[in-house]
Inverse folding.
């Protein structure tokens, strides 16, 4: 059992939790993830490690309530426990040696982009963060990004935060204005990463994306998370989750991600109804 | 006077047309009377070939003698000296090629139902034993076991009985390895696996779940920082193989590992489970081993109307146990022999819509002695299915190899060990089971765990 030390609602649907997991904290690196199970009957879901404190033995996760399990997780309070919490899994992002990087985050994906920006900043790289949300109400980690970015471009779909438009618009502008990046790191919805990769391909800038397919075990024993990268099948849980954005078959990944949609929707409604009843 | 009936006492089973709709155990087990009657078929021959056929060398005629006299707990104590998981082995061992394959009664008629008797005795003990196992006096030495499958649990049990302080590290959230995620409930009820693991805990074995060795901790850290004097690697062969044919990444294509993990470990067959599984009408399972049978029979129980086993060789070469194949046929699984998939076809929503196959014929025997299947020209045909499960075998996960310096492995990933001891290329590190041999059987893994436990005991005592 893993204790919830701290819980903060970052916005109406996104929650940050600090979990006591000393062994995970000891080894965690940006780009890696954990698998958790809220309770005995629960499913296993992957969440990226958003931060860690090796001394305090704490791992931070940031999640959006999008379905039954994240809904259940969101109802757990400080002092309560998560049944299973395993990690760090996956391969850490390769950040050593990068001098100037554009870190692009979209929505809750920003929670995964942030530790990468932070680590790059710590390594002395010049970090340009381009972060996008649908609107002002959904913004997370604004101050955190500000602290670790040499340049911080805020974007929103509706113009209520920063500039109105997509992160790809901002990235294109920076590139056109003459900024020379060693690498672009994009983390967010698949469709966003697809378009960032398509843009940078035109300019020949190496681009790394963090993939988020369906996972079960997260240790390489089932292949549920397989993707096509450069024409080859890869398991995101062990070979990734970071991949060369110019090699990933995003359309296939988007299809595979939708495999259980009706089930998920049904399960979520069931869970919400359950909590609604408890409140009454 | 022994019972000279040429046939085994039949095992009561659930009716095929009832059981193919539920996940309850198929074989129901002997009654006391049936067990005693079957035990009386043993001739107590001098050769005791059955014992030689058992990878963990259970004193078979001795325990059977106790059963024949109605002393079931005494029979259990005899088995327990050699086996840590009798309720499991009695159910899933391929007895026909091991103990029962060597039984003299099998020369003329059927061999003694050794597996069924072992199962009866273990179940009787689990239901009736009042005395709990006593934790042996500690000898102060610590041993780490990586993986809680059959080899790891056996190694742990044997070392605990010798007084070692044993910790088992398991990557998943439940201990048992293939016994919990692979073999379905209808062949091996999970409550039975749990009881056997509880028995080990009573002997003082600690089980740490959610511990992916190679990620959370390395083997070298276990030795250097945590003071484990020896390590046994029983991490199995859990990396699934795919065919690399077009369409393999369509929605509705599973590895057997994923399909069975969802069904067994995550209980996706239960109506209110949080873990989803695709509801399919027509399912193709590619492969001919026990895993293929398990996947096919599970798909049927999840409500599929037609389930095909697609196998590139003929019936004679099926690697699955004869009993499992018979059970599958009785339940209505359709076998397509000498058939090989070449492409998985998509429907309009990019789910699986069918599978394109070719017919095969058997050519000359290859290096392994099996006749090599060759494609028949112009024999392409399609089967409409909405789900495909690939049960082509597995290989060892490279995680341990990649994070343990100096650990020698075969090209295909199997850890190289000394056969008599299980010692790897690193001092104090032993390995056994599928991690060494590639996918094999539960009982061979147990035998390897047993061998390594003995070698570890000798190694630590000699230090």
């Amino acid at each position: 059992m893993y204790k919830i030390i701290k819980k903060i609602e970052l916005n109406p649907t996104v929650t940050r939790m600090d979990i006591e997991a000393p062994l995970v904290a000891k080894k965690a690196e940006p780009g890696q993830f954990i698998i958790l199970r809220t309770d005995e009957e629960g499913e296993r879901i992957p969440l990226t490690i958003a931060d860690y404190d090796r001394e305090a033995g704490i791992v931070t996760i940031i999640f959006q309530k999008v379905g039954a399990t994240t809904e259940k997780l969101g109802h757990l309070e400080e002092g309560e426990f998560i049944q299973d919490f395993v990690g760090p899994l996956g391969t850490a992002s390769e950040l050593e040696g990068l001098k100037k990087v554009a870190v692009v985050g979209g929505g809750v994906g920003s929670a995964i982009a942030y530790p990468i920006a932070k680590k790059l900043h710590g390594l002395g790289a010049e970090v340009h963060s381009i972060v996008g949300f649908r609107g002002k109400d959904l913004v997370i980690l604004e101050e955190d990004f500000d602290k670790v970015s040499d340049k911080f471009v805020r974007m929103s779909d509706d113009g209520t935060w920063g500039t109105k438009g997509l992160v790809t618009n901002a990235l294109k502008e920076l590139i056109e204005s003459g900024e020379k990046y060693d690498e672009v790191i994009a983390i967010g919805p698949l469709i966003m990463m697809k378009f960032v990769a398509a843009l940078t391909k035109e300019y020949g800038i190496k681009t790394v994306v963090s993939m988020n397919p369906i996972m079960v075990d997260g240790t390489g024993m089932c292949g549920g998370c397989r993707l096509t990268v450069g024409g080859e099948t890869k398991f995101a849980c062990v070979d990734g989750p970071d991949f060369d954005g110019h090699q990933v078959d995003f359309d296939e990944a988007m299809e595979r991600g939708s495999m259980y949609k009706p089930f998920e929707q049904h399960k979520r409604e069931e869970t919400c109804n359950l909590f609604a009843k408890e409140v009454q | 006077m022994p019972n000279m009936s040429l046939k085994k006492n039949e095992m009561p089973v659930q009716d095929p047309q009832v059981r193919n709709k539920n996940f309850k155990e198929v074989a129901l087990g002997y009654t006391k009377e049936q067990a005693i009657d079957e035990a009386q078929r043993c001739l107590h021959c001098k050769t005791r070939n059955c014992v030689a056929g058992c990878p963990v060398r259970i004193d078979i005629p001795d325990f059977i003698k106790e059963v024949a006299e109605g002393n079931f707990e005494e029979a259990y104590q005899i088995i327990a000296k050699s086996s840590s998981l009798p309720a499991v082995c009695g159910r899933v061992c391929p007895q026909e090629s091991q103990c029962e394959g060597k039984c003299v009664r099998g020369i003329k008629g059927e061999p003694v139902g050794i597996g069924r008797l072992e199962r009866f005795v273990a179940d009787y003990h689990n239901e009736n034993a009042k005395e709990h196992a006593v934790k042996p006096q500690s000898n102060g030495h610590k041993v780490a076991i990586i993986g809680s499958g059959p080899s790891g649990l056996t190694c742990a049990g044997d070392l605990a009985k010798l007084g070692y302080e044993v910790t088992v590290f398991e990557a998943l959230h439940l201990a048992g390895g293939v016994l919990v995620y692979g073999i379905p409930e209808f062949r091996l009820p999970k409550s039975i696996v749990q009881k056997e693991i509880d028995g080990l805990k009573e002997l003082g074995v600690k089980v740490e779940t959610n511990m992916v060795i190679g990620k959370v901790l390395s083997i070298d850290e276990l030795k250097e920082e945590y003071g484990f004097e020896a390590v046994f690697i029983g991490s199995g062969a859990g990396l699934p193989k795919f065919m690399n044919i077009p369409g393999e990444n369509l929605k509705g294509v599973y590895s057997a590992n994923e399909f069975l993990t969802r069904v067994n470990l995550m209980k996706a067959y239960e109506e209110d489970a949080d873990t989803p599984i695709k509801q399919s009408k027509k399912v193709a399972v590619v492969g001919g081993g026990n895993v293929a049978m398990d996947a096919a029979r599970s798909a049927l129980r999840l409500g599929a109307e037609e389930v095909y086993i697609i196998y590139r060789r003929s019936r004679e070469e099926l690697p699955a146990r004869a009993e499992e194949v018979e059970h599958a046929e009785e339940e209505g699984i359709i076998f397509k022999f000498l058939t090989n998939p070449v492409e998985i076809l998509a429907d309009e929503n990019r789910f699986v819509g069918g599978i394109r196959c070719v017919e095969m014929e058997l050519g000359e025997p290859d290096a392994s002695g099996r006749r090599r299947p060759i494609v028949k020209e112009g024999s392409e045909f399609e089967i409409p299915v909405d789900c495909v499960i690939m049960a082509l075998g597995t290989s060892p996960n490279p995680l341990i190899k990649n994070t343990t310096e100096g650990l020698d492995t075969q090209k295909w990933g199997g850890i190289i060990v000394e056969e008599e001891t299980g010692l790897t290329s690193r001092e104090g590190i032993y390995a056994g089971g599928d991690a060494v041999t590639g996918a094999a059987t539960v009982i061979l893994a147990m035998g390897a765990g047993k061998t390594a436990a003995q070698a570890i005991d000798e190694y630590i005592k000699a230090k």
Q: What stands out?
A: The first helix of chain A runs from residue 22 to 27. Residues 100 and 126 of chain A are 5 Å apart (CA to CA).
